[in-house]
Amino acid sequence: MLVGAVVGCAVLGGVLVAVPPGPDGPPPAPGPVARAMTAVGAGAPASPPDLHALIGDREAHLRAHPGDVRSWAVLGAAYAERGERTGEARYFPKAEKALRTSLRAKPKGNVEALDALAALANARHDFRTARKWGEASVAAAPKRWTAYPSLIDAYRGLGDYRAARHALARLVRLPSGGAAARARVLTRAALVYRDQGLREDAAAALWDAVALASAPAERADCLVRAGELAWEQGEPAEALRAFEEAVRADPDGHAALAGQGRALAALGRTSAASHAYRSASEKRALPQYAWELGELYESKGLGAKARGQYEATRARLREGAAGGVDSELVAGLFEADHGDPGSAVRRLRGEWERHPSVAVADALGWALHRAGKDEEALVLATKATDKEHGGEVRSAPYAYHRGMIERELELEGPARRHLEEALRISPYFSPLGVPAAKKALGALGSV
Question: Angle at CA 186, nearest 5°, toward 99 and 51?
Fold first, then answer.
């Protein structure tokens, strides 16, 4: 583990020092540097103010002690987490430089740097590189639990769901320390269960993780994941409650605000949804947030506002690419619906070669449909939705895409079945897709 759990510590000159309980009671609570080091060391979320304090502390320490291998690893991990938390991709190259400095100084057994490099690659959506670093960390210390969550994320991003399940099976057998560590294990278990279509198991694991998480940022992260799962299941009111609780736990959390926007829009509260999306974008300018707000505006006939958000989406995609983020999946889906479908197909073919996940199969299939290549599109859409091809996730957008492709191919029975399935899974999955699905079903003669 990068840094163990900090209990009863003080920070003196940038160094953690154990402080025994005094005669008048327990030692003071850890400060922002200690809190951030604990979170970063376990790969858990940390608040932006705590990350800022940790980065300043390690930068100052390394100016005086440039040969401190572990501090380079801590600094790199903190840069990566800050880039992930704030959407400032400029921190990713800084993270890579710091981590490679640590690894050059200690090329063998430097599991702290290896773990952080895997997490950085996942943040950039470079899942092949994340797998490489994650497997190297596990090989160096197979009984050390902290490498496994990033490795599971990498396998999922590559569409290797069997490897993700095997890694989870190894992870749950390892001692993982305190409650916060167990919460992190449970969140990864929930993601693997979701991929298998085991939604009830996934929800139970996430709410167990919420109960275990104590730090505000960690608790908010678990709540956001619970809210996202409820949203996918077509339960916007339950999702909204989870997102609202996440915002109360961590007001800096952008994902909870964006989740609120999604749920509020589904509940017909358009003005509040727009405000939530804008607040999320102020905290982290993800292209998805502008895209979703643009589609909400478009669904309400606000074309000029929608176009403004679509331009913001493109600008944010360019900013991410400048920081080394692979956003081809998001860019391809966006271009398929709001730009050049031919460009979307080219982008997503490359992404399919790199990361053949269910999500990329769905996106490429949809782009091919939008480009008029429906027979090839159906092959990919089938991979995304058939269990025998690994498509065990119950996803309304995936079912909708497959149904629309089948309708174009005049496969009326399958088209009706999949469009009805999409609306059954979630009648709120998209402000533009839901009306299109209902219109298509009407044309097919379905009630």
Answer: 35
Provide the 3-class DSSP secondary structure of residue 175.
coil
pTM: 0.88
* Distance of alpha carbon 265 from alpha carbon 310, whole angstroms: 18
Tens digit of each residue's pLDDT (9 = 90 or more) over 90-117: 899 999 999 999 999 999 999 999 999 9
CB atoms within 10 A of CB 213: 25
Round to whole Å and give the CA distance between 320 and 240.
Answer: 28
Which domains does the chain carry? 1-107 (no CATH), 176-273 (1.25.40.10), 336-447 (1.25.40.10)
Residue written as tokens 């294990």?
Answer: 185
Q: How far apart are CA 437 and CA 415, in angstroms?
A: 10
What pairs with residue 17 in β-bridges?
Answer: 10
Q: How does pLDDT run across 297-341, given as a tens digit for each residue?
A: 999 999 999 999 999 999 999 988 888 899 999 999 999 999 999
Q: Cα angle at 386 between 380 and 391, to 5 degrees?
A: 80
Say if residue 157 is exposed, middle or buried (CB neighbours under 10 Å; 0-12, 13-18, 19+).
buried
Token pair 């005049």 is found at 410
